[in-house]
Amino acid sequence: MKTQLLFSAWTLFCLLLAPGNIFAQQTTPTLTPTQLVQQNLVQQNLTQQNIAQQNLSSIVRVQCLSELACGVVIVGVPKEIRFRDAAAARFRIVAPPASEILLSLALPTRLLCSNADTPIQFNAASAAWSERDSPTLGVTTFNPMLPQRIRIPASGMIFLWIGCSLTPARTLRSGRYTALVRLDATTLIR
Amino acid sequence: MKRILFALALVFAAVPFFAFAQNSASENALVSARVISSLSIAKNKDLDFGKVAQGVGAVAIAPDNTKAVKFTITGEPSETIKVTFTSPANLASGSNTLPFTSNVKANTADVVASSSALTSGSNLDLGSDGKAYVYLGGSINVGATQARGNYTGTFAINVEY
């Protein structure tokens, strides 16, 4: 009986904690570009030395490079931030070249300020990605409300921009309104 | 039973190397907007020189004169705005014209005595109450041969953040 329990516990361990299994997801903290390079170098060494049996080649990193800063918004006056604008949110996704990643965005519907709120909208042309760090060079626009499958280019990274539209009511209270956009990136490798 | 569990353990231990591998990461971006009040501007009256006899010459209404126009601007407290205006060079009565020169001053507080001259395109700060004031005076020159009539013109003022 004791042995059976031991095997059961081992089985459960394999299911839930084994590295790289189908349930395990590794969320990584925000890193500076230098840290990213350093970490990638360390990861390469690990792979070369064959120390870890984990599937390091599937590691993906997401970094927010710019917030979505809508700036001054006048009550009653709609405002649009296009993905090409400097005020758009900007992300960098680093993943192994040729790997396929799934991008999904959790988008807010309202910006909040104490007890007040104002709607925020995204449309089919609010987001774009490019392998170059420029929202005007070789960009692919996409609907941020829908998940995107993207093949990572040889550079091992892509950049992503997101804009939005605001329609503040005439009666809206003055103040600083905020919300969060969350970008999830998942590598898919068979 | 023991063998079955052992076999299961082996199978699941192998899962990481053969299954559909995935790795994910997330990051947030802050969305922010500074919502401010809209701007409005209102005048208290029109600039009226009244009856002026031919040959009187220069007639002026200073910005601190009770006949002067006061524009009250309301917006976001302590915000800076840009004021632009166009002043007519002449007042007109049909085909007759009368030279006009505007005299514009502005202040954050409603105190014309401490107001400063304002040129079109200048910036103006709104006060902590969200208000600023523009005072409009002007002068006309009525010569002896000036045709009689009711002379009018439009002074247009625009404010923006």
Radius of gyration of chain B: 34 Å
Query: So what's the oligomer here?
Result: heterodimer
Assign an overall shape of chain B: elongated
Report the mean per-residue pLDDT of chain B as an integer: 91
Read across the widest sheet of chain A, the strand sequence of neighbours is 1-4-11-8-9
Short description:
With 190 residues, chain A is an alpha+beta fold.
Written description of the protein model:
The complex is a heterodimer of chains A (190) and B (161). Chain A has helices at residues 2-17, 33-49, and strands spanning 61-66, 68-74, 79-81, 89-94, 100-106, 110-113, 116-121, 127-130, 140-142, 148-151, 157-162, 164-166, 175-189. Chain A is α+β, with helices and mostly antiparallel strands and 190 residues long. Helix content of chain B is 11%, strand content 48%. In chain B, a hairpin with an 8-residue loop joins strand 7 (96-107) and strand 8 (116-117).
Topology:
The complex is a heterodimer of chains A (190) and B (161).
Chain A: H1 2-17, H2 33-49, E1 61-66, E2 68-74, E3 79-81, E4 89-94, E5 100-106, E6 110-113, E7 116-121, E8 127-130, E9 140-142, E10 148-151, E11 157-162, E12 164-166, E13 175-189
Antiparallel strand pairs in A: 1-4, 3-12, 4-11, 5-10, 5-13, 6-7, 7-12, 8-9, 8-11
Chain B: H1 2-18, E1 21-36, E2 40-43, E3 57-61, E4 69-74, E5 80-86, E6 90-93, E7 96-107, E8 116-117, E9 122-125, E10 131-142, E11 156-160
Antiparallel strand pairs in B: 2-4, 3-10, 4-10, 5-9, 5-11, 6-7, 7-8, 7-10
Short descriptors:
heterodimer; A: 190 residues; alpha+beta; five-stranded antiparallel beta sheet; four-stranded antiparallel beta sheet; 13 strands; elongated; B: 161 residues; mainly beta; seven-stranded antiparallel beta sheet; three-stranded antiparallel beta sheet; 1 helix; 48% strand
